[in-house]
């Protein structure tokens, strides 16, 4: 038993020393320095250098909340890994607040390294103001243009991005694909002169402005603001030390929603020992990461925290199939049991399946961002 605990300690010590070289903190400042170093390291895991400076009470766009709820469960764990092509979705509100149907979005928060997969303009169509009985049009042609540099000519230059027939009587969100424009803006920021929407009758003439109206950031409720939604991949890869199987998240639905059942009391299990003080076999235990305790609740919208789980327990000979041992671990446990070679410990109890989590948060510019992070939750444990 003693050698089992010792081995467990060794496994833990080895894992920790990979990331934290010996430090030279004095005892008095140690805890504060360790704390800030640890939080900085945690930010890096979430792909950030500094925590976003957002502490307001802005309401996130309903679209982003719905998207988050579609991809993630209450704990933030990815429930549908095939819903998103990339790992990042960003939303931007119009900065122009124009009375015309013109919009401009500041994309400075998008990293140069992000691969643009798709971009959409979301406009909220309001009900017609004029009585419909006087109207002989049932459809209108709505076209979205990218505004181009027209300083050298006397007329506005623009490029058609997307065009569609929309029923005059309808109301609600209309989505237009504007991927090409956003890609060109990412190449040269100076070309981002905004977007213009033109509404025509089916005959091609100007449409009565009272019939086809879109909500503007200036005159309408916050929940109906014009919005740009950007789907990207930030090129972050999962920790190479972790699972090689990049399709791990596909099995998220297998993730047990309740802690592993067993005959042990919660407190005994959380220590990794049973009631008699014997080390339990390798298994998974809850490990709650609370963003409020870490001081991040100001800028993280969801989740409030998540269960990362951790693996603990002994891996003694003989390793049964429930331990999911690698062949290497089986041989190591045999060598350990036979004491054929001195100093060979039992294998380590480590996560053998990892799941991704999702974070919905405000960035430095108060845009709401959804990001997926791989390998954040231990799905199961094994002796390796
Ligand atoms: C875009 O936002 C950034 C960060 O808030 C700001 O520094 C920059 O001036 C803005 N650009 C424009 C064109 O408003
Ligand atoms: C632009 O307009 C001005 C005055 O209306 C005219 O003199 C000039 O030739 C025009 N330039 C071009 C490029 O059409």
Automatic annotation (TrEMBL):
UniProt family annotation: Belongs to the TGF-beta family.
Signal peptide from the UniProt entry: 1-15
Residue ranges of coiled coil: none
GO cellular component: extracellular space
UniProt biased composition (Polar residues): 251-260
GO BP terms, alphabetized: tube morphogenesis
InterPro entries referenced in this protein's UniProt entry, alphabetically: Cystine-knot_cytokine, TGF-b_C, TGF-b_propeptide, TGF-beta-rel, TGFb_CS
Region (Disordered): 241-268
Keywords: Disulfide bond, Glycoprotein, Growth factor, Secreted, Signal
SMART domains membership: TGFB
Name assigned to this protein: TGF-beta family profile domain-containing protein
Domain TGF-beta family profile: 266-384
Domain of life of the organism encoding this protein: Eukaryota
Entry-linked SUPFAM superfamilies: Cystine-knot cytokines (SSF57501)
Gene3D superfamilies with a match to the protein in the record: 2.60.120.970, Cystine-knot cytokines
Subcellular location(s) of the protein: Secreted
GN (gene name): admp
Alphabetized GO MF terms: cytokine activity; growth factor activity
């Amino acid at each position: 038993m003693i050698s089992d605990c010792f081995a467990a300690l060794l496994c833990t010590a080895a894992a920790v020393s990979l990331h934290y070289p010996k430090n030279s903190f004095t005892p008095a400042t140690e805890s504060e320095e360790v704390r800030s170093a640890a939080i900085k390291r945690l930010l890096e895991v979430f792909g950030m250098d500094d925590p976003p400076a957002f502490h307001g009470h802005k309401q996130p766009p309903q679209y982003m909340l719905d998207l988050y709820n579609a991809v993630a469960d209450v704990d933030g764990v990815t429930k549908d890994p095939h819903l998103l092509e990339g790992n990042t979705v960003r939303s931007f509100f119009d900065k122009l607040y124009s009375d015309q149907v013109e919009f401009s979005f500041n994309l400075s928060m998008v990293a140069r390294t992000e691969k643009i997969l798709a971009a959409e303009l979301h406009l909220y169509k309001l009900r017609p103001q004029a009585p419909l009985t006087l109207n002989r049009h049932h459809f209108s042609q709505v076209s979205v243009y990218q505004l181009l540099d027209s300083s050298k000519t006397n007329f506005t230059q623009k490029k058609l991005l997307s065009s569609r027939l929309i029923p005059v009587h309808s109301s609600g969100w209309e989505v237009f694909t504007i991927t090409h424009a956003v890609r060109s803006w990412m190449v040269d920021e100076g070309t981002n002169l905004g977007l213009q929407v033109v509404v025509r009758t089916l005959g091609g003439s100007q449409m009565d402005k009272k019939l086809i109206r879109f909500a503007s950031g200036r005159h309408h409720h916050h929940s109906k603001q014009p919005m740009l939604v950007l789907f990207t991949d930030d090129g972050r890869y999962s920790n190479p030390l972790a699972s090689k199987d990049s399709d791990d998240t596909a099995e998220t639905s297998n993730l047990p929603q309740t802690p592993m059942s067993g005959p042990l009391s919660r407190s005994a299990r959380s220590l990794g020992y049973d009631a008699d003080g014997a080390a339990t076999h390798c298994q998974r235990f809850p490990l709650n990461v609370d963003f409020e305790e870490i001081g991040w609740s100001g800028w993280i919208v969801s989740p409030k925290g998540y269960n990362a789980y951790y693996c603990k327990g002994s891996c003694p000979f003989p390793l049964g199939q429930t331990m999911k041992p690698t062949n290497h671990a089986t041989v190591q446990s045999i060598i350990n049991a036979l004491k054929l070679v001195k100093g060979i410990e039992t294998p380590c109890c480590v996560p053998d399946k990892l799941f991704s989590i999702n974070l919905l948060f405000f960035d430095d510019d108060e845009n709401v961002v959804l990001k997926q992070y791989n390998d954040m939750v231990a799905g199961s444990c094994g002796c390796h």
